[in-house]
User: Fold this.
Amino acid sequence: MTQVSEAKKGNLTKEMRAVAEQEGVEEEFVLKRVAEGRIVIPVNRQRQGVQVCGIGAGLRTKVNANIGTSQDEACLEDERRKMQAATEAGADTLMDLSTSGNLREIRRTILAETHLPLGTVPIYQAAVEAAKNKKSIVEMKEEDIFKAIEQQAEEGVDFITLHCGITLETLARLKKEGRVADVVSRGGAFLIAWMIHNGKENPLYKNYDRVLSIAGKYDVTLSLGDGMRPGSIADATDRAQIQELIFLGELAKEARSANVQVIIEGPGHIPLNEVETNVLLEKKICQGAPFYVLGPLVTDVALGYDHIVAAIGGAVAAAAGADFLCYVTPSEHLRLPDVEDVKEGVIATRIAAHAADIAKGIKGARDWDLKISRKRKLREWNEQIALALHPERAKKYRRESNPKTSDVCTMCGEYCALKVVDEFFKT
Amino acid sequence: MTQVSEAKKGNLTKEMRAVAEQEGVEEEFVLKRVAEGRIVIPVNRQRQGVQVCGIGAGLRTKVNANIGTSQDEACLEDERRKMQAATEAGADTLMDLSTSGNLREIRRTILAETHLPLGTVPIYQAAVEAAKNKKSIVEMKEEDIFKAIEQQAEEGVDFITLHCGITLETLARLKKEGRVADVVSRGGAFLIAWMIHNGKENPLYKNYDRVLSIAGKYDVTLSLGDGMRPGSIADATDRAQIQELIFLGELAKEARSANVQVIIEGPGHIPLNEVETNVLLEKKICQGAPFYVLGPLVTDVALGYDHIVAAIGGAVAAAAGADFLCYVTPSEHLRLPDVEDVKEGVIATRIAAHAADIAKGIKGARDWDLKISRKRKLREWNEQIALALHPERAKKYRRESNPKTSDVCTMCGEYCALKVVDEFFKT
Assistant:
């Protein structure tokens, strides 16, 4: 039993009902789109107490925050703090991308303590264990990869990234492309190294049936990874990227036939004028499967400010139809994000998501802006700030910069346009 | 003699030559577009040592930073610091929007100390003096407004915002519109209050010939203000706003006939899906006059983060053809920006401008991204960071988060995708 199998039979699950209620849309609408594969609800059947989150066309754009350890920083308490920061800032989902420390303990702790749907990239575990026990990631066995997938699915992970579209064919396209930045997907890099070293096809592609069987068993949502996502504006929308997308489209179709929920991961570094094209391509080639984008980053030059770069790309992508934005933090390309980076990343991405929801007419989106505008017009400061997307900084600014007259702010003082016009416009 | 009069005669000025050289475009191209009014070069004939800055179609998108005092915070030293912060962060122009303290001293100090083109809003001075000397802004005389314009032009201000398009007709449209946030333009509010109180037409519209005569005398660039810019997503692209734009289009045409350089100011709070329309409308109605936008802000709800909101709107606007972005700082709607806000505002807006320049194919824009991508691919950290749009934060992050292996970062450590693929992809 999966959300898709139930939807195809016309059975409304409690998760579909919850999504309809949260979003203020008809239950039939959710049911139809889950059946079509245009909406997913990532909830592992093993998972308890998860906050249901619908992702797809016609629903509010969702925001994911990546947390997780690395070789240089592997502390469970830090991950707990990042999890809390992401949650408080309003993330809709989390991904644990840990590659160091006790991976299983970290993942189980997060699963136990978060109410948000949790995603992982199981190949990290397989690769990290191979590096530790066999001295190289390329020594991992096909069985190790599937063992990691099965284990994580059994533990209750709600969605998993699998780079199933990196085939020998895709690699041939990549070699002929001659990219500036080759490959920047970590999971993609592991698989490519393995494929080249062992001279074999990607096990996740070759044994995709097995992937589907595990996903179906636990109703884990497949997030088909984009190993070919461009890591430079110069590599955007190239043959390697689109070749992989074509495979992902075929694999998405198979997943639906197998009643498995599936979303497609997307770029990456993409110039602003190609963002809409990328969304339309995904929607066409993958028959409307929810699109989960990282960024897109619309320039390569803003190191330390990539959360802003991604907010630009993410807003435009989501307005064009992308459904799920993976956050990018100010530390992208520089270091593992800390707690503050996590917070700023979630806020910037939520801004992008909401700007897009206004643009694409998502139910209720404009109402929020209208509410806050009315309070602003009345110069009701506390009410205005309380309604803000993340009031903390606004509160601080207001507290620190108190105007002589309390119904204005220190920007204009008594020359506040709203106040001046109010006075004379009433006549 | 103005840039336009010279261009019309086919005379290449040294400013046009400098613009061509800076931008890597043909001198003839600049000359032709200045003659057509599609490029302006705001340099007051009285001004010495200004860094020439071309604004318009085919040139790099420029960024303006507003500084200036308010009733609550009027300290010349603070303004100096903000001027330095904006300059160091890479602003192309400054505007002094002071409304408190010794306005003339502040303006003259900035003019003397900055090499950037400086803009002002002369009606602020007229209104503030009326409020001080005559107890109300509505008591200012028409002559006071023109005196302020003449004085500031004579002092060497390079461009001035004048809200010439707020006519009695525009006000009639505004009243019938029934807006959520009425008027949020400060200069606009002063004029509207004056017009309603005195029952008279806008002197800047009625005596536009006089405006043109002063502007022509000093070659001050007119920045025709948008008093009707929406202050809420709900008011965007409404009849009041477009009515004013129509008047601005007529006034721009007159300015060109009088050989006066002119740009058009634009919104404001605009949903993402209306941004491109607003740019196209301005370009049509004002016959290609450079478009100077404030934001646009694509949502009303992100108090404390409006620099990100404006970066989204600004990138999309500039990609669609807007030429000049007025920065928005994190303190917008909350307080007068401090030095840190100024810096963050300029950086966010420069990101938007550059993302747009890549998208609209501005010469050299992509080269920068390519350069930094190549350094990133090689994992040459210092070179990569030195090339960044604003390296300060990147340097700090790198310094604080040193990886065990120096050729990667703490995000992935030895599992760096670029490094893993490098090793196996060479074969």
